[in-house]
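Q: Got a minute? One more chain.
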Amino acid sequence: MPKPADPVRERVLEESHGNPLALIESGAAQEAGHHDLAEQVGPLLVTGRVQEAFRAQLAGLPDATRAALLAAAADGAASLDVVLRVAARLGVGPADLAPAEQAHLITVADRALTFRHPLIRAAAYQLPPHHQRAVVHEQFAREWADNGHLDRRAWHLAAAATGPDEEVADELERTALRAQYRGGAMAVSAAYDRAARLSIDGGRKATRLSLAAQAEQAAFDAGRADRAARPAAEAESYADDPRIKAEAMFVRAQVEYDRTSPAADAELAMPRPDSYRPRTWRQRRWCMHSLYGTLESR
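A: Always. Here it is, folded:
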């Protein structure tokens, strides 16, 4: 089976519910790059012949049924009550789920809606065009806002966005700060990373990428810091502020130490006269650590 990156692997395992076929199909799709590491609502995208068979089965359902299934698929954490309220905003109701139940695609019991197979949920989400998915996410955002779930609201607004949107980016930044207070480094990184993708201002984009990289690095201090390299490199390229450049550079230096050698780390971390110098105690300590590591490796 393919081996996607750790955060994606966790979502694949979570959404497949241990189903071997779903593990294979979802894992293969993520390995091929059909994923957004920062995306927190909606199922992971999958591909494959079995998925196409489910899509064909869904295509034969009434439009209202597909709309109701899209609402159910767009947020796996939503209760049936929430799904039905969002469906009502779309002009569909509980009766519209009946054709899907009769086709054995879902079960509705004990006030819960369950897709018979994880790939059916993915197909129900992928089949409609993007603008329909965006409308559903907008309605979820309103629903979660009414219930005080600001983080869920922010992620649904991000999923509904069709381009850069500074207001949504601000909401995701606040989501990252709340996650930081809870101690969830991966959630912090995901929120900052998505906020950066939605940023209009280059400086704020660089800051958010740098913060995402630092959170990624913290999450993988146990031996998997390499995922921090991508947002750190992007932050360094976008930043005009030398402080942001320095933070990004030192994250990359730590990654190089993990991934290659102390010498490679020192090449990045040691200050250069044509660039910028370490500004914080943490950065200066890392410079000294890199220098000693380089000397010891020779």
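A: The longest helix spans residues 202-219.
Q: Perfect, thanks.
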